[in-house]
Task: structure prediction
Amino acid sequence: MLDKNDPSTYSHQYATVNGIRMHYVDENAKSSKPLLLIHGWPDLWIGWREQIKFLADLGYRVIVPSLRGFGETDGPTDPAEYGYKTISDDLVGLLDYLQIPTVTVIGHDWGGAVTWRFGQFYPERVKALASFCTPYAPATKVEMTLEQIVQVLPNFRYQLYLCTPEAEKDMNDNIPKFFRRVFRPIADGMSLIDSKTGRLAEGREDVPRSDVVPEKVMDYYIKAYTKQGARGGLNWYKQTHNNFVQCKDLDPIIKKPSMMVTAELDKALPPAMSAKMSEFIPNLEMHNVKDSGHWILWEKPEECNALLKSFLGRVDPVSSNKL
Result:
């Protein structure tokens, strides 16, 4: 029996795709209506815990991979083995393995960015796209460094630290403390990086686990990151050059039905960043969830699930439910 807050009760599967061993959860596999849910950093598949059972109960097949570098999926140490095209190839390899021709892709954080790029690299494999927090932006035609990007988007300044060896050590030496600090609702008012020391967890006060994050879920994150280490996930922040090379020739227009959901109080990905999306995605609906921070999926699960139910009911309805 699936308990959304007990990671051991989900259907864990493994496949070799694109040269790596990938872990994924696959719920309601008998359904012919597949969804691909894509997590971000420093997340894992279990970040979708409030959505997986909800969507499966609606009648969808819910496939939630651990991305390259995260959890039980292989994490190459070399940053050159990442980038949006590489990740998209991982995901299309998983769809091929599962013999799924087309899918609706739903992402959060880095997973939202992957969702948009997957829709550009493999439009023939996509029914519809949705992203929480992460806006679509067309690939740049001129290469920029991360430092130059931060000059334009100062809310990304934290990423400069995440690229450093110090950040990797900071995380690896303080995994329980790091996750107890980072996985909190926005109302708790905790910053990702200390404004004085510039550190994620080193030298910062330890805090109790937030009641919003169940103990078994927190233990799962700590165990997974203790085993894999921080490097694979942090490699995602070292992709400015790779992503330019891999994405510069993509068609900037996305023609698939799409939904963008912003979180009103997200400091890393503020809603204003999504203002021009409709110029590139003609069939786009946009929503803003009030009083939500970056962890919108479990801060505001009822709102997120209602938006997903409504969107999916239009773009890929399941005939046997009450959508």
Summary: The first helix runs from residue 49 to 58. The chain has a mean pLDDT of 96.
